[in-house]
Amino acid sequence: MKISRNGILLAGAFIVLIFSLLLNVSLGSVSIPMPTILEGLFSGSWDKNSYEQIILNYRFPKALVAILAGVGLSISGLQMQTFFRNPLAGPYVLGISSGAGFGVAILILAGSIFGFASNAMNPWAVAVAGTMGAGLILVLVSLVAWRVKDSMTLLIVGIMFGAAVSSIISVLAYFSGAEALKLYTIWSMGSLGGLGWAQVTLLSVVILLGLIPVIFSIRAFNASLLGESYAASMGISPLKLRWLMIISTGLMSGAVTAFCGPIAFVGIAVPHVARIIWKTADHRILFPASALCGSVLLLLCDAIGQLPGSAQSLPINAVTSLIGAPIVIGLVLKRNFSKEF
Amino acid sequence: MKKAVISGRNLSLGYQKGDRKREVLHGLNFDLYTGQLTCLLGSNGVGKTTLVKAIMGRIPVWNGKLLVEGKELSALNSKELSKTLAVVLTEPIVAGNMTVGQLVSLGRTPYLNWSGYLSAHDKQVVEEALISTQILEIKDERLSEISDGQRQKAMIARALAQDAPIMILDEPTAHLDLVNRFEIMQLLHSISQSQNKSILVITHDLDIALETSDQLWIMKKKEKLIAGLTEDLIVKGLIDSLFSKEKIHFNSKRGKVELENKLAKLDFEGDEYLAFWIQKALGKANIYDVKSPVKIHENPFFIHYEGLEFSSIQEFVAFLFLGE
């Protein structure tokens, strides 16, 4: 039996993912040798108690968050790009990140202005605020989505909502104090760490829920590559697909943004990388391929952001853009970008 | 007797925005038959696309009846309709990464489950569609790397793979060169006969439509749709109704559209068809009066005029032009 090139590439990407995971876990301000980690993971007995603490309660949850965020953002981005037939669409075009930012800005910035902020950087508080903000914008966009006929209008409305909310955040930022401003700025740079197992579990559940509509719309996304009219002529309901997409991307990118902050770049770039590597437009391949690429990219960026051996670390957004942008520019220049979509 | 698969009875269509209604088409009657290629002709803005949208179920019927295989179109759900009607639209395809084979496979969409898995039967239908459009050998090439003519054949193959008894194509020959235009229309004609499909083609290529279509529909603004066997419409002189401007007319003898230029009076001796082209050239140069008789020699070609000989029409026209 012939094993397809796509299958081999997917298997290869999975192996790369395992290595990226191990590399990510082994790097950090405290150097822990790889054999020690593997032994600890498989036997459950650790050389030092501190190692167990660092690996199991700090680095492992963080690596899992990197994978979850990579999956959620890449698959959201791919859905948006196909649905809107726009290579520049990403998980945030419907205003979800602005919405989450709005929620967090209310918590941190307005909190400092009106004096109700207490323990503002508690991850639960930030996540709840982010979720509420993202949910609010999603409800507004959905109300519009219910009324508008074509997808381009929806895209413009989503971007306009984002712009309007960003301006409210600017106003809040203008009036808030230096301390709160710094907290908010740090949140907006994104962070994969600092989450406990409870939050990681919740994030996993939400991402899995967000993947369910994706599985049931693979055929519809493939047909949508030809545009709404063709899709409709083949018995696909563009309206139904629109709702599945809003629910799926709302859950996944909303949850990721609420817990990790707005992580730039991954959602737009990774689907292109997957298209270029796998050379296909078939979503049966592109969805798993994007998920794998997104996870690997975030794991590696996070590993670099640790600045291994030093006590400092870089914000994840700085690394994803700094490392990822040249890679994508390189890939895009090597192959004709517009033809790959 | 051929069976009618799509019928319009006193059909009115239009668009509505708020309380404002704009009627585009009024009181249309037509029948689309199986096993025939029908061409829909009409100038821009007469409502051809509106009619197609209505047949695709994208806009509602205002008045009258639109029947598909004897049933009201509105009674069909989108899945049933997708198995009855396949389309090729003017919309450009952006997915250049897709191969021809993948594009044609998308035609099977109405028959697949959510995962998009193709059964052996689906694959066979796709292959047959590739074969009947003569593009099997470019099955693995990407859409961005094939010619416009091949891409249009791939779109037709996709519609064939949808396995619907009716196919509607909106200007499938736009942007193609003359040879490809003939080839595509010839292909559609042979498909309509060999697979007993009803094919409706919207086109502006009158010459090719006359050459290949079985039935012709002519649409004019605020008038009834003229439908009939292509040759009947030619004989009855109905093709001319396509042209509202007086300067353009349809020459039913030559089967082509002509600019009504005043032709030069020519007292000639020789072949009539050669004289016709000389008159044409003179007409373009605004020369309508040739004083002396002209002798046309056919092989080798030369023109004898007032004791002079011209080996090409160009020389002759230049001489007369200077003489005036």
TrEMBL record, chain A:
GO terms for molecular function: transmembrane transporter activity. The chain crosses the membrane at residues 63-80, 92-118, 124-146, 153-175, 195-222, 243-265, 285-304, 316-333. It is a multi-pass membrane protein. Pfam families: FecCD. One of its GO terms (biological process) is siderophore-iron import into cell. GO terms for cellular component: plasma membrane. CDD domains: TM_ABC_iron-siderophores_like. Keywords: Cell membrane, Membrane, Transmembrane, Transmembrane helix, Transport. It is found in: Cell membrane. InterPro entries: ABC_BtuC-like, ABC_transptr_permease_BtuC. It comes from the Bacteria. Belongs to the binding-protein-dependent transport system permease family. FecCD subfamily. This is Iron complex transport system permease protein. It comes from Algoriphagus zhangzhouensis.
TrEMBL record, chain B:
SUPFAM superfamilies: P-loop containing nucleoside triphosphate hydrolases. The keyword Nucleus does not apply. Signal peptide: none annotated. GO terms for molecular function: ATP binding; ATP hydrolysis activity. Coiled coil: none annotated. Residues 6-246 form the ABC transporter domain. Keywords: ATP-binding, Nucleotide-binding, Transport. CDD domains: ABC_Iron-Siderophores_B12_Hemin (cd03214). InterPro entries: AAA+_ATPase, ABC_transporter-like_ATP-bd, Metal_Ion_Import_ABC, P-loop_NTPase. Gene3D superfamilies: P-loop containing nucleotide triphosphate hydrolases. Pfam families: ABC_tran. PANTHER family: IRON ABC TRANSPORTER, ATP-BINDING PROTEIN (PTHR42734:SF21), METAL TRANSPORT SYSTEM ATP-BINDING PROTEIN TM_0124-RELATED (PTHR42734). This is Iron complex transport system ATP-binding protein. The lineage of its organism: Bacteria, Pseudomonadati, Bacteroidota, Cytophagia, Cytophagales.
